[in-house]
């Protein structure tokens, strides 16, 4: 299971990722991607390649795959 992070501030809601991951994502009334179930977007292992494709093809780089703990923060 991998977590898909969506940056809704960058997304324009055209729905490419929803078309690539209909098992995981749905559209809200404005076209923005939302998970079928409330909470984090969890991608089952058998759909990882689809999620990677969506992440690569997102025109606004609004998708990121990975565990929350893998995010790197730079402290100064
Ligand atoms: S592909 Fe990217 S820009 Fe398009 S709806 Fe999905 S997250 Fe938003």
UniProtKB/TrEMBL annotation:
Any single Pfam family the record assigns to this protein: Fer4_15
SUPFAM superfamilies: 4Fe-4S ferredoxins
Protein name stated in the entry: Ferredoxin
Species, as recorded: Actinophytocola oryzae
